[in-house]
């Protein structure tokens, strides 16, 4: 076999392993195997981070102890945007490849993103009220997160009306 054909085959084979894991049966078997360990590891890391952030960090000079809510607010906002990005990538894969696992991934990301967006909005209001006065200001960043929250709700509602 010639060298260019061998490189083409190697490149194709290196990409095909990704699509092998997109097989729903294989994916569900593997996720069922590792999910209990990942849940435990996540609980341990999140618990350690929250305890460390709330009880062992010093208070900020100008903000007092209210700045500690940032240890919940920023990761929640990051997860909300990450869930949206996951929905976008999975939906694009669905549009291109029509692969059912990508549609399920986009569907599963919406409730997670909704919860984290709601947490980010609530903790932002709790932190912003003592700092700036009002609970809500129509700042572009706040409004964008409100639109993201409404997008998640609309996505969940729209999937609920579609036939299986």
Describe the protein.
With 164 residues, the chain is mainly alpha-helical. It has 2 domains: 1-56, no CATH class; 58-164. Helices cover 81% and strands 0% of the residues. It is built from 5 helices and no strands. The protein has helices at 3-20, 24-55, 70-97, 100-132, 140-161. The model has no long low-confidence stretch (mean pLDDT 84).
Oligomeric state as shown: single chain
Proportion of residues in extended strands: under 5%
Count the E strands. 0
**What is the share of helical residues?**
over 70%
Overall SS class: mainly alpha
Largest sheet: none
Uncertain regions: pLDDT < 50 for 5+ in a row? none
Counting structural domains, the number is 2
Radius of gyration: 21 Å
Mean pLDDT: 84
Give a quick summary of the entry:
By secondary structure, the protein is mostly helical.
